[in-house]
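Following up on my earlier thread - several people asked me to post the actual chain instead of describing it. Fair enough. Here it is, all 512 residues.
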Amino acid sequence: MIKAFKGNPSRLTVYFCLLFLLLTGAVHFLVSYFQLNSQKQFSQSLLTKAEEVSWDISNSIEQALDANLQSCHQVSINKLRKILANYEYTQDIGIIENGVVKCSANWGVLEAQTHINEHFYKSTETGFFFAKEVEGVFPIHAKYDAAMKNGIIAFTVPKPFKHYDNLNKEFSFQIISNDKQHTFHKYLSDMQFQHSFILKPQKVVTCSKEFTYCITTSNNRPGLLYFPAYISFLFVSSLGFISFLIAYSFISYSDKTQLIECRLREALKNDELYVEYQPILAINSKQIIGVESLIRWKDKIHGQVSPELFLSIAEQLSIYPTLAYTIVLKTFKELSPILSSNQIFSVAINVNSYEIQSDEYLSFLLESCEKYNFRPNQVKIEITERIELPLCELATFALKARKLGFKIALDDFGTGVSNLVWLTEINFDIIKVDRVFTQTIDDELKKDMITAIMSLIKNLNRTIIFEGVETAEQSTFIESYNNNYQVQGWYFYKSLPIKELEVIVSRELKKR
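Reply from S.P.:
Thanks for posting it. Predicted structure:
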């Protein structure tokens, strides 16, 4: 149940109105987008069908012209019958003289003398004449579309586009000549508005490259207008409710953030922030060779708080420096038994702009290593592209850190174009491939992307760590490519408190 709102009502109203307009516009655009795609797919399908019919009719006429038929002799009629048997969409083919069909393949010599010239439309580009729903030619009550050229006339099968009409599409469509003078086929949807509306109709025009006509589709009920009135009302009501919830939640969250500031100050003062460790494994042995230090905070009121949130708040409150030094000391103290006894084991720590710009931070790290009796090269300093500092500052920091013996890691590699520039300007010891690319291993359509990343970094002679490994397939693929790579992710371990980490590391040491 939503609690009584205590914030500024006018602020809630403004946010609600903006969100409502934004969501309604987005849904309208999304529905319109899918409708437009449906029109395009339909147009292409109908065009393909129309071209098949056109090729059938035109080829049957051309074959008849090549046969040099001599009026309506029986020999000519027999030739027409042989020609007709080859074409699927040609209902009949015959000889026409002075606007009267004299004979056809199906009916032989015709006695009726119906003049049909006035029905025909001439295509100046192709030399063919076309007519729609011609009747009275044969001794049956039927209408045919027809085409003729140089004394030969062909009739299409009845209603060749009946299947498309029966689809009952929500938009109207037609097959029309390029010059807009002749409509070969037309379908008017009952679902379209009978009168023009305020919104511009969605139109798609797909023209044939082989023939002189186009498929046009028109939808004057785009987006939310397509739905019945009661459905549109439900949509709008739902969007209004969702907009209110989001606006309310945003304002509540904003108020909550103000309260969380005091909680964070108290947590730092009372040493309530703690560290968990994400194991890093050698892919070939599946044994833990290091960890990444991850700061955590579980508040009594707010629960498990996201690091991105409270670190950002710490920066705003100018308490980030205290937090940064506190976490390093806590990490080094907890890991010192493992690091001092196993010189291969390492710990990765994430830094922000403050650490890079601080004159004392690297000296502090070095003194802390000496205090807890392990070597600087067991410490990996991770720099991410989210740090918005000039490249020269980053390069200077990395150079100083490496001179003191620390390792420098490029975190989240591949998530931004700057990473590629950084590789040429900063001498990284370690490259950590972002989980975004690791996840593509499970997708056959995207697997080439991670292969390209591997090809890019394989000759750099750097330690490579793949983040976010969550499946056996991902692990197997990485190992098959290079069994010297390192990995971290939930497939092996989630982040662990120090006690659980010590048990696992101790157990692995005993197996060696």
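DSSP finds 14 helices and 20 strands in the chain. That should answer part of your original question.
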